[in-house]
Amino acid sequence: MSRRRAGAEESLRRLLALVPWVAGRDGPRIEEVCARFGCSEAELIEDLELLFMCGLYPFTPDTLIEVTMEEDRVWIRYANFFSKPLRLTPAEGLSLLAAGTTVLSLPGTDPDGPLGRGLAKLAAALGVNPDEAVGVELGHAPPEVLATLRRAAAEHNQVEIDYYSYGRDGWARRIIDPHRVFNATGQWYVDAWCHHAVAERVFRIDRMRDVALLDAKFDPRPINGTTRTYSPRPHDPVVVLEVDAHSLWVAEQYPHEGVEEVGSGRWRVRLRVSERAWLERLLLRLGPRARVVDGDASVGPAAAERVLARYGVSVKSS
Amino acid sequence: MTRLERLINLVAALLETDRPIPRAELQQRVPGYEGSDQSVRRAFERDKDSLRSMGVPIAVEPLDPAHPELGEGYRIRREQYELADPGLETDELAALHLAASAVRLEGAGGQEALWKLGGTPGDQGPDSPLAALPGGEHLPTLFAAMSERRTVRFTYRGAERAVDPYWLTFANGRWYLGGNDHLRQEERRFRLDRIETPPAVGEAGAFERPAVARRPSPQPWRLGDEEEVEALLLVDAHQADWAVAQVGEASVRASRADGSVVLALPVSNREAFRSFALGFLDHAEVLGPPALRREVLDWLESVPGLEHETVTA
Fold this sequence. Notes:
The complex is a heterodimer of chains A (318) and B (313). With 318 residues, chain A is an alpha+beta fold. In chain A, 33% of the residues lie in helices and 27% in strands.
């Protein structure tokens, strides 16, 4: 057994797709085969040298696959059992449909272009309706803002934005160097160098307004890209919340420093909190289901008092 | 004899036959199964699992349907193995390749899908994807059921459901399934991460899809079983644009001179709506209906640390 298991499986996946493609053509160029099937020439030749020893019992010359390599071209014959590629797995079909549908919905994609046509053919082959079967909603971002930011990232233009800070609950203008526009878990983000913070930041595109492309250029710098929009710093104050089982989503949704079961269906979640408004929202959403057992216990009641005042209800926090 | 050769020969032998082949005979026809009976059996099981995990449909059938006592054999039926070629032109394949590089679905082999369709001509696309969609353990099963029109059964919120799957949608960072719920006799949507048991699939072609399945709403406050009420939410100018972008222009009931807006939102999940409303802190107010406004006030008054003697101005 000269190959590792994973290696044999990957080669097999490739061969089951590549053999029908080559066999259906009159000697394609080896270079093109490698480009299409994502392998090096050495890998391809290694696999093909095995292939021509394969075939059917009793493995006499007339039952073996014939592989001919001449100069820069390759022919595969007598592989009738491999005349068509293996069908798509459900996961593969879904991933292509989802990718195609998503890109088709982005600004600037022609719905009648090659992607739309290819997608319709693929959906028909998979037995689903291309418009209804798979939908991907990537979250709100005005198309023109998305286009401006993507252009700025590609051409290294600085951008001035008015940005809503969720943590501080306020708007502020700032200049950023947008490095990469991306979507994760249904939200649009841009990785950028922020001249206001003098640091790398991730901005949510739906919290921007008045986005203006500037003439000033920036020099791209390595951006680690792992920062989250909510990323408390190690020296931020600690808050320990005691929550019920219904509210354990807090630990799933936010970075925390530990969850501990304290009995009677209660858990303690230890959080670092960099911004007051962030904690206010969390405590209002949790309402009676959570209690601050360590840290500033006045944040929740003070926020509740403020919101109640807006409703015309006056209460005192103790 | 490498494992790759053995696997190729095994697939060829199983594809070429027009009858099920028993394991003992396969050992004769496919070189490379050597050693004790136990190690041969183990090697064969491992090969079978590998092939099945890459989607090779190995069927187990009785050697003679009239005499089940004679045992079983293996084969691959061509009609289950072979790709129905969608006939993609080179530019269409290249466009799908670019799309698959830009949008990746976690845990799914977009690259291998493209190999099967004829490889990946042209540009390699961006180094890092524009969008990464999280996968889900039940996604492939549900997609397969949808494309073959099979009813699926699973436990959801403690109840057994039978659903004819119509669509899958990714919204709010999650996957949802939509389809006809036999229990409720209407179209419902389900969050995939709340499906409690692996979906069991029924026979193919079990239902007809409606001509146009209803498009899902991604708004969490509509994803509930409660009786629907129309909530009126006042949002201050400070957050009005963002709120309207979230819910859509069609939900704007009134735009006031000070820049604030009143949104009318159908709510069938009051908890989700309350979370949405409270996310605005004191920049929004639930105007009605009175019972819903009262619930939000009761909730706020129950925040620990508040004194309970409340005075309504």
